[in-house]
TrEMBL record:
Any one GO cellular component localisation term in the record: plasma membrane
Pfam families tied to this protein: PBP_dimer (PF03717)
Protein name as annotated: Penicillin-binding protein dimerisation domain-containing protein
Keyword Cell membrane: yes
Bilayer disposition of the protein: Single-pass membrane protein
GO BP terms, alphabetized: cell wall organization; peptidoglycan biosynthetic process; regulation of cell shape
Species annotation: marine sediment metagenome
Amino acid sequence: MRESSTVPEDVKQRLNWLLIFVVICFSVLVISLWYLQMIKGEEFKERAVENCIRSLVEDAPRGRIYDRQEELLVTNRPAVVVSIIPAEVDDLEKLSERLSRIIGISPEEIALTVKNYRENPFKPVKILDDCKTNKIVEIEERKDELKGVVLEVKPRRDYLYHDFAAHSLGYVGEIDKEELQRFGNPKFQGGDIIGKAGLEKYYDDILRGEKGGKEVEVDALGQEVATLLYQKPIPGEDLVLTIDRDLQLYGENLLFDKKGSIVVSNPNNGEILALVNRPSFSPNLFANGISSSDWQRLSSDADYP
């Protein structure tokens, strides 16, 4: 008769430890799955929704400026802005290289602009303002290769007579960090356009209007497929000046190649009918962000325009 085999004690002990280890691992796995599904499930669901819903801000057109006869002096025109939504970018370096070949901005500058942005990662970061038509067409044709790139139409200031009454009208520009801190107003965000000088600055509160926006559903390539929510922006109020356009133009022509000032007022009520300063400058230079070369030229001009 064969003797019954017995398992050595040390082997039994190892098997017991192995069984305990397997039970612990299985328990950890079950607890982890329960935690992910029951505790973090809603969070992951919300993040998944965020990944397919895009929130876009729509700037309000600034109020227009007229002369005393309601002749239009300052208005707005549509401009296409090229932006990148950081949260939708898979490979920033590759995207920067592809976009660079289209818009002519170096890949390093594009990537740095996105990396330096510290606000909402789902908010578009402006890369190029007032994009030309041929570049817009190429971006649209290659949109499958440019995931995260969006084209936005925004109102841009248009001073119809260029350097006409520039010192009085003033100009607009992008809000800077110091102004954001000084204003301390949650309505302001980086990239907002505000009055920087002259009447544009003095009456900024009424000219600026109120921003609107929309929430859109996007597909895996970041392309819009449906508008879920839309809030129309409220345009700024118009401004009617006491200045007379024809009288102002006459004064501008008198001092065309000279230095000096002309003030014409109504003796009955003191209203300013013309206010000319020469030399002057075009506020349009500032409307889309003044270039370093233009700023250097103006700031180094001995005539201090």
